[in-house]
Amino acid sequence: xxxxxxxxxxxxxxxxxxxxxxxxxxxxxxxxxxxxxxxxxxxxxxxxxxxxxxxxxxxxxxxxxxxxxxxxxxxxxxxxxxxxxxxxxxxxxxxxxxxxxxxxxxxxxxxxxxxxxxxxxxxxxxxxxxxxxxxxxxxxxxxxxxxxxxxxxxxxxxxxxxxxxxxxxxxxxxxxxxxxxxxxxxxxxxxxxxxxxxxxxxxxxxxxxxxxxxxxxxxxxxxxxxxxxxxxxxxxxxxxxxxxxxxxxxxxxxxxxxxxxxxxxxxxxxxxxxxxxxxxxxxxxxxxxxxxxxxxxxxxxxxxxxxxxxxxxxxxx
Length: 317
Ligand SMILES: Nc1ncnc2c1ncn2[C@@H]1O[C@H](COP(=O)(O)OP(=O)(O)OP(=O)(O)O)[C@@H](O)[C@H]1O
Ligand SMILES: [Mg+2]
What we know:
Elements: H1 3-6, H2 9-19, E1 45-47, E2 49-54, H3 62-75, E3 80-85, H4 92-95, H5 104-108, H6 114-117, E4 119-120, E5 126-128, H7 135-138, H8 142-151, E6 161-166, H9 172-180, E7 183-188, H10 192-209, E8 213-221, H11 224-241, E9 245-253, H12 256-263, H13 268-271, H14 276-288, E10 309-311
Parallel strand pairs: 2-6, 2-7, 3-5, 3-6, 7-8, 8-9
Antiparallel strand pairs: 1-10, 4-5
The structure holds adenosine-5'-triphosphate and magnesium ion (MG).
């Protein structure tokens, strides 16, 4: 089979099947030329870091990871915002029991500011809601995407972390927001379609937007071994065809408590902090907080906060 033919979803499936049962490979090392060096002196400045949670496939747990990671970071004492970028089919507000009276559409129409959209959720988390059942929001043009991203530049008090929950698929609504973030978390579960869709999204982000690193989180898995096996399958194919590093960034177990929390419209990390999934989210938040600040000087695409930092006096520079 030729390399070009392999670089297709069907080819990937064949590779996945062929590698099933193989021992996990060592974690991928950064490729030469890719640097995640700090731009900050690390003493009195906090980066405004945007983290997009994506995955390609629907139902893999993107919103679950975005909500619980955001709240875990908030519980750990960070200033966190969560943008629901699943425009048109928003559900972060439902997951957190919030009832927004306005959404991103009102911001785009100039009817409110971003500050006026912010909804307080539990544990100090602030949510930017998107509309649900709104066709217009599901079909935003690139100027509108840019306007939303730029609106965060105007915040008088930018957060330390902005979590961005993205939609399923490969639409501009997904890729624009993911590429504008300083980090992309790829949520993958143990299904062939999840792996092929995650690969497809990584390919678009790498080839069309120049994204050079994504972080994979395995969701709904039984143990770390299964999670690492998923990572191995994905990294093996991307190492071969793409110029991108896929880091293994942890795993969230399948947890009935998590489903129960969602039914109660609460984050599991808030409702049952000692549950298995809540502990895994706490660990993920600790890891995220250790990630080096990416070098944004090389970024030639539109980005959340445009590299802004929040110094200790709280006045953004
Ligand atoms: N670790 C887990 N354990 C048990 N159930 C989970 C876990 N993660 C997610 N789920 C369940 O999977 C379902 C889908 O999750 P979620 O809505 O977060 O997926 P999504 O990727 O955001 O979907 P969409 O593409 O539709 O936005 C939810 O019902 C949720 O309860
Ligand atoms: Mg979702």
